[in-house]
Amino acid sequence: MYSSMKRALRPLYSILLLIMVATTLTVRVILHYGSIQLKYDAPLFKSPEKPVFNATLLKYASIDIGESQLKQDIEELLEGNFRRRGRQRSFLSSKKYNIDVRMKPARGISVQLRSPEFYRLWLTFRRYLSDWSRNRRFQLDALSELVNGVKVPLDKYNGNKVLGKKYKSCAVVGNSGILLQSGYGELIDSHEAVIRLNNARTGKIFEQNVGSKTSISFVNSNVLHLCARRKGCFCHPYGTNVPIIMYMCQPVHFFDYLVCNSSHKPPLVITDPRFDVLCARIVKYYSLKRFVEKAGKDVVEWGAAHEGANFHYSSGMQAIMLALGVCEKVSVFGFGKSALAKHHYHTSQKAELSLHDYDAEYDFYHDLVKKPQMIPFITDKFQFPPVVMYH
Ligand SMILES: *[C@@H]1O[C@H](CO)[C@@H](O)[C@H](O)[C@H]1NC(C)=O
Ligand SMILES: *[C@@H]1O[C@H](CO)[C@@H](O)[C@H](O)[C@H]1NC(C)=O
């Protein structure tokens, strides 16, 4: 009885077994497919689609409203006409250079340039300024050029055998008051390179929150201009061995560069003007986008609302851009504001400068972290490093 039942069930067993095998196989196949598809979905294997950028915004972002004024300034400087420059004039007519800038410049070489020492300085100044001026144009791969322009000189100075290898990790330390009580000091110092801005103070009372290591001091030329009046160009809150990377706010600051470069042991690198133009375009694009999309205004009114010709990216923004070019990973500290925090952690400055559009810059950082493909004016060949913003 039992055995006959067993015999009768045998085909049933076989069918069950067959179904089980078949099911397992199917599941395997699905799993297999699934894993392939998962792999393809991962960002490493598929770069996200580039968005279609709005041509109007791109066009307006590419126009430099201050261009003609700057050209004129440069022309005058190349001719040796310093009359219109208040602060610079007093610097140039200080004991050090002994020139009388009150005299009217003649055609060609100005009669201001009386001391031979100053004349030599002026010739170098002219050379640097005209090179800079000629290179001040847009170049798509300016970010990729940073390794050669910045990292290689630093490697040479540090005696590194391998030149132009990107930093494994970088911390860009902004100066926002949100850093106070952050306790990020140790985390900041654990990065291979630490970039600080505009000579913000460090030291015992800040160390726990901002760290103590500095690999690159990033400044704008206004900062160096103030240092240039001090004995020995003293401008080294982080020590005399820390390289300085600087962008030119005003062409006349090439004098400060020349004066300070001679007494500065580590490299004092001026940012490539093509890199400056790229930074300017990106920030302006985000500012225009915000103006049109969030405020609902007309794109042509943007100039009047943002001090048109004076509009400028912040030093912090360019320091982050620099890090994108020379670092494999970027951590950003001390950017952002809060109702409770001071504008700067180390000063009592309350307000933001109106020639910057920090909100637009935050929009840019947001894309940088989440969707870097949304950032305009960047070549497809450039790979953004991962960026983390610490708040
Ligand atoms: C691009 O932006 C301009 C200015 O805001 C707007 O007028 C235009 O409609 C936009 N074009 C597209 C295709 O979205
Ligand atoms: C700046 O200093 C560096 C290093 O001392 C030197 O190689 C370079 O020629 C200097 N540049 C100028 C314009 O003096």
From TrEMBL:
TM regions (residue ranges): 12-31
- Kindly give the membrane topology term recorded for this protein: Single-pass type II membrane protein
Main location per UniProt? Golgi
Q: What Gene Ontology cellular-component terms does the record carry?
A: Golgi membrane
GO MF annotations in UniProt: sialyltransferase activity
Q: Where in the cell is it found?
A: Golgi apparatus membrane
The name of this protein is: Beta-1,6-galactosyltransferase GALT29A
What species is this protein from?
Olea europaea subsp. europaea
